[in-house]
Amino acid sequence: MNALKSTLLKLDGASYKAYKDIKGKYNFSDFTLIIDRVQGDPFAAPSKLRVKVPQSIAGFPPKLYNSPSRKVALEDYLIRQFDRAAKDLSSHRGTGKSGLIGVTSLGQEVLERTAAFVSKNEIEVRFVVGLPARGRRILGRQAAELLCEDIPELVDRALIYDALNPKEIFPWVETVEDADALRSQLSENNLVAFVANGAILPRRSGADEGPLLKNAIAFQSPSSLEVELNAPNLGKIKGMGIPQGITLIVGGGYHGKSTLLKAIALGVYNRIMGDGREFVVSDPTSVKIRAEDGRSVAGVDISPFINRLPQGRSTGNFSTSNASGSTSQAANIIEALEAGANVLLVDEDTAATNFMIRDRRMQQLISKEKEPITPFIDKIRQLYEDYGVSTILVMGGSGDYFDVADTVIAMENYQPFNVTKKAKEIARECATERQKEGGDSFGRITPRIPLGSSIDPSRGDRAVKVKVRDVDEVAFGSEDIDLSAVEQIVNPGQLRAIAEALIVAKEKYVDDKRSLSQILDKIVRDIDSKGLDILIAYPQGDLAKFRRFELAAALNRLRSLSVKSDRALSVE
After folding, report:
1. Residues 340, 524, 193, 295: what is their CA dihedral angle, to the nearest 10 degrees?
2. Calpha distance 368→350 (Å, rounded)
3. How far apart, in whole angstroms, are the C-alpha atoms of residue 445 and residue 341?
């Protein structure tokens, strides 16, 4: 520490680039500070630092991190404590980002991240610092205060067990462990989702994902759908179980249909304690499907839904740079199935109307021979019977789906009611007389093999050029990948990790022989066994774990992507 302080004082007034001299490792009394990367100027991306605190100093009880669930939860808790303390200590100390202390961006989800690591030996936290300057001259004294006084205080406040509140830490960790336990019981109970009684589903606003606090209505399952699951810490938890098969969520506008579906869609992730949706869990292979006008599609067999296009265009190997609502939704479904989805989540508000339903009157006016689209209503049952893929569908505008539904849930003032029996009676009494157009089976799902030459992260004279913009877009080489419609990406760190995974996939696994699904298997297996650090060349704390489905979504939206079909592996 003394050596670092001395160096910084000597650098006072020097050119900003002289900061590179402080890169390295420094032993403080209670921790080690590692400066991995030094920014080039005060307006550039901040410098990347780490602290390592021995467990002999940190003192966290092993039972807080003795399982994968608990470990991730404790790491998440420490990141948030570090973030809170950093915001208190950060101060403007000159030009640009001078004085900044920050960690990765955080939301309502508990995700595995590279910002913190907990083991029996030590605690490691990665963060960024804006090294102080005035203009492009080093402010050495301020830098010494920041690194040699503020950082030790941060460690004392956020990374020492005795400085924290055990009455908060233990419930935080146990909440995540319980949620994982509930999720693991879905399949054995023939469920695709579970919503605990007492859950608060509405959010404060479109810009604030925190729970609605004022006049919030707690969720209560109808008795006919109520199930009881076991949590290792809280014990038995009751709530609404959504069974496998086809489930409709119906009801009037603004009564909570889409709110429920969104909670289920995000139930593939764990939530922080106090979110209100901590015990809303869903099948981890659930994928939200929507129409996506204008997206590119590369060689997808959408023939189960669309065929006989005008001018004889093939849909068995469909490609376009500007998909319509119906073709994009068809491609999104097939791509999700190709990646291994077992549950589809669809909201009519973000679906293509002509893809979802063709009623009897339209069938009378436009014969099937003149309509290339087979609507989802005629494929949804086959999808479940042929492939075991369930669907949860928000539907407020078409009662025709009553005919194919197994379960119908009506939302009224954010409360669910099981109206399956009534919906089936209505379906019998008010027969639509529409003709089924889906044939005898769903159709084939054809694996695709990505071609390596079409995945190029280089740009100009740079071998790799990747940049993430919020949670919507990745600049990958010369291409922009638009992920604004991929609703289950919840954190910018996931997008950064996906961008890095695309590079690793290109370098290691895309060989013009492996199918897309096989490539996903390789990447996911590597990350599960070795962690997210395998994606990066040097330690950085801004990556968060993603699912295979969102990685597939990014690759599928790369406009330069080319594929070849592997008909030999087609599943009928």
Report:
1. -60
2. 25
3. 12
Computed over every residue of the chain, the mean pLDDT equals 94
Range of the domain at 141: 2-164
Element of type H or E holding 110: strand 109-110
Number of Cβ within 10 Å of residue 463's Cβ equals 10
Tell me which residue has tokens 């979802």.
Answer: 356
Q: Report the relative pairing of strands 286-289 and 343-347 from DSSP bridges.
A: parallel
> Do 405 and 505 lie in a common domain?
no
CA distance 114 to 545: 9
What per-residue confidence (pLDDT) applies to 569? 61
Q: Judge contact between 65 and 74, C-beta under 8 A.
A: yes
Residues ≥6 apart with Cβ < 8 Å to 214? none
Q: Which two tokens stand for residue 13?
A: 């007034």
DSSP class of 502: H
Q: Look up residue 354 and give its two tokens.
A: 């002509």
Looking at residue 56, its pLDDT comes to 97
Name the nearest CA neighbour of 90 among 98, 81, 99.
Answer: 99
Domain assignment present for 170 = no
Backbone phi and psi for residue 84, each to the nearest 5 degrees, phi listed first: -65, -45
Q: Give per-residue burial for 236-258: e unless 16+ CB within 10 Å, then b.
A: ebebbbbbbbbbbbbbeeebbbb
Q: How many whole angstroms separate alpha carbon 26 and alpha carbon 192?
A: 50
The pLDDT assigned to 460 comes to 77
Residue with tokens 């209560």: 220
Q: Are 405 and 248 in contact (CB under 8 A)?
A: yes
Of 413, 445, 477, which residue sits at a domain end? 445
Residue 173 falls inside a structural domain: no
Same domain for 113 and 258: no
Spans of the chain, pLDDT less than 70: 92, 94-95, 470-471, 567-572
Of 396, 419, 445, the residue at which a domain comes to its end is: 445
Measured in degrees and rounded to the nearest 5, phi and psi for residue 382 equal -60, -35
Tally of CA atoms within 13 A in the half-sphere of 225 that contains its CB? 30
